[in-house]
Specification:
The complex is a heterodimer of chains A (205) and B (74). Helices cover 25% and strands 15% of the residues of chain A. Chain A has 205 residues and is α+β, with helices and mostly antiparallel strands. Chain A has one domain: 2-Layer Sandwich (Alpha-Beta Plaits). Chain B is built from 2 helices and no strands. The longest helix of chain B has 16 residues. Classes of the chains: A alpha+beta (205), B mainly alpha (74).
Chain lengths: 205, 74
């Protein structure tokens, strides 16, 4: 069975923000919410790197563990999703997430914190697949359309890989072997365990 | 008469202390599997909605074609 994952290749990311734009456009994400963003590591220092960050759909997701109303669930493909009808907007998931994925849109006249919003791996939510209700709450369900996340498919340098973990790990491994460097995958160890894809044993990335 | 008036006053005053019953909908709805498709014409061609194997194979092929630039002939 497919196990969906993201990998961002810091050797290739040129900080063009096309992943951010693709995501916002595809899902019509409101102002103030960025499901995906590009972060620069060691900014201004020679050798700086940029990475694209969003929900990594962790194997042992801390957001799921801390949610007091248990609004999260995991799809058969390992995508961590949530039910906005159950979410109370408490923000615990935001504190627990190591990637800063949960976002809270300001709603109403006084900027009240609304329901949590995050990357869905373009897999929608518990509403009927492809329905208008699903689109309005969670964005487009590209997985059910036989497509992959828009951010990964739109990445101009193919730095951001998204799809079945085995397949993208193979693609990344092949790249590293060809170029002979850049095996470090930022966030992979934190999200999926520490003994994968170039992570030193037991270390957090 | 005085007691009745007191009772009515008390009932009116304490009415504000009542609280509406709040129920939380924490019964998560089951989500349809992605391989079931959307039934809309926006689906990518090359797989059969409802067939998990063909959906998984289609996504693997799509990943290789779209994201593995070493597999491309440029």
């Amino acid at each position: 069975m497919a196990r969906m994952k993201f990998v961002c290749d810091a050797e290739r990311c040129i900080e063009c923000n096309s992943c951010v734009t693709a995501c916002k456009n595809e899902h019509e994400v409101p102002w103030g919410v960025n499901r995906r963003r590009v972060v620069t590591l060691n900014d201004g220092i020679p050798g700086e790197r940029s990475i694209s960050v969003a929900c990594m759909h962790c194997s042992d997701a801390p957001c799921m563990a801390v949610c007091p109303v248990n609004c999260f669930y995991r799809s058969e493909e390992g995508v961590v999703l949530h039910d906005k009808d159950v979410c109370i907007g408490c923000g615990y998931c935001s504190y627990a997430c190591p990637f800063g994925a949960p976002q809270f849109p300001a709603s109403g006249h006084f900027g009240v914190r609304g329901k949590m919003d995050k990357c869905t791996f373009c897999a929608g939510g518990p509403e009927a697949n492809g329905s208008q209700a699903e689109f309005e709450k969670y964005g487009r369900n590209r997985l059910a359309e036989g497509k992959l996340p828009a951010c990964a498919e739109m990445c101009s340098t193919k730095a951001l890989l998204g799809g079945d973990g085995d397949v993208i790990a193979d693609i990344f491994r092949n790249r590293v072997l060809k170029r002979g460097k850049g095996a470090e995958v930022w966030g992979w160890g934190t999200a999926y365990g520490s003994k994968q894809a170039g992570q030193p044993g037991g270390a957090k990335s | 008469m005085k007691q009745i008036l007191l009772l009515i006053t008390l009932a009116a005053a304490l009415a504000a202390c009542t609280e509406q019953t709040q129920t939380i909908n924490n019964a998560k709805r089951p989500d349809a599997a992605a391989f079931q498709g959307t039934g809309t014409p926006f689906a990518a061609p090359g797989w059969k909605p409802g067939d998990r194997i063909s959906w998984e194979q289609h996504l693997k092929t799509r990943t290789q074609n779209g994201q593995n630039d070493y597999a491309k002939v440029n």
